[in-house]
Specification:
This protein is 56% helix and 13% strand. It has helices at residues 2-11, 57-67, 80-90, 94-102, 164-171, 174-177, 181-215, 225-245, 249-257, 265-331, 346-367; strands at 37-44, 47-48, 70-76, 108-112, 115-125, 138-147, 151-157.
Length: 371
């Protein structure tokens, strides 16, 4: 542990002064000052100690180390200065601290000595009255979790993915919460994956809507040009969804299959259920991507067919117009000796000939489906 603290001191020399970073959580600070700490509680035998309400993270971990139990500290978008004191007090690795502060990390599971660092991507479905080429379908956030023997530190980024309701549900199940920090880690993983399942169902509805629109008969004068933009936008949102789900598969497999000192054996069984649900969501997301590819190709094929039909119609009318153009062009050359030039019925005969030929060409093209 001393080596880790020496390394952390070398990486962040500015944190050596004891009077700078940790004062944000000092008991003497102004209560009205803003803080990244959303909740800080001590749990023993699966129950929250009500008399420990209002403790600072330092006071919470000191009480845990003296009396037992574990501390659960929740933070929302802490700054580097705000998180530095907690990191020092709990012995968190500088690399994990940097990831937790700056966010924008891919889902992963890392072990630093006696601490597990887990990153989850939260997904929120954005409600919209109508899917357009610029509609935002999913919104992402992040939840980082530091799990130790006697503490859990959750760091949340983004406006979605609040853990307040999850904390309350866990407090209503003392038997599960008595398993310690690993029970909290499982509940967070289960909460995140359940969110994936709900979002997948909503995205499926959007894909069904686009699919119906693409393969339905367009109204007279309608255009399929906007469908490609909607499909592409939905495909981009599904890709964002995929980036949250796919990297999490390996961490969940490790938590459910590999024995770990920080994970209670009874809780590890529950991770298998989470891994199974995650695998199902991953298969659905892969299916969404492939289905959208097929829909996009079908839309482009339909656009090509429509263009070909338009070109055939234009070509057909050009062929019909070519007949009177040719005949009138011949008689407009002003030669002195031309057939039927002085015949009384020459003019109406030429008009009748033009009409007959044009009618014959139109009927032939109509029969062949060009018009």
């Amino acid at each position: 542990m001393s080596m880790i603290r020496d390394l952390r001191a070398a990486v962040r020399p500015s944190q050596r002064k004891s009077n700078t970073p940790y004062n944000s959580y000092d008991a003497t600070r102004d209560p009205s000052a803003s803080s990244a700490v959303v909740d800080c509680a001590v749990y023993r035998d699966g129950r929250r100690l009500t008399e420990a309400t209002g403790l600072t993270p330092r006071e919470a971990i000191l009480r845990v180390r003296e009396e037992g139990g574990f501390a659960w500290i929740g933070l929302h978008e802490p700054t580097e200065e705000e998180f530095a004191g907690i990191a020092r007090e709990f012995g968190l690795h500088p690399l994990a601290v940097e990831d937790a502060v700056h966010a924008h990390q891919r889902p992963k599971l890392e072990r630093y000595d006696d601490t597990l660092f887990t990153v989850f991507k939260t997904i929120h479905y954005v409600e919209h009255a109508e899917l357009t080429a610029t509609s935002e379908v999913v919104e992402t956030g992040e939840v980082m979790c530091f799990t130790g023997r006697d503490f859990v530190i959750t760091v949340r980024h983004g406006g979605q993915g609040s853990l307040r309701a999850l904390r309350h549900r866990l407090q209503e199940d003392p038997e599960l919460l008595a398993k310690g920090p690993s029970a909290v880690l499982h509940s967070i993983a289960d909460h995140v994956v359940d969110g994936y399942i709900a979002v997948a169902a909503s995205v499926q509805d959007d894909i069904d809507e686009v699919e119906i629109d693409v393969f339905s008969t367009p109204s007279k004068g309608g255009s399929r040009g906007s469908d490609a933009g909607r499909i592409y936008q939905l495909k981009r949102e599904v890709l964002e969804f995929k980036r949250a789900v796919s990297p999490l598969l390996r961490p969940m497999q490790l938590l459910s299959e590999r024995p770990m000192r920080l994970i209670d054996p009874d809780i590890q069984k529950y991770f298998r259920d989470v891994a199974d649900h995650l695998a199902r969501v991953h298969e659905e997301v892969i299916g969404f991507d492939e289905l959208l590819n097929s829909i996009l190709q079908a839309n482009l094929a339909q656009a090509t067919v429509t263009q070909n039909e338009d070109m055939r119609k234009i070509t057909s009318w050009a062929a019909i117009i070519a007949v009177p153009t040719m005949i009138c062009g011949v008689y407009g050359m002003n030669f002195k000796h031309m057939p039927e030039l002085k015949w009384t019925y020459g003019y109406p005969m030429v008009l009748a000939l033009i009409g007959a030929v044009c009618f014959s060409i139109h009927r032939t093209l109509k029969r062949n489906g060009w018009l």
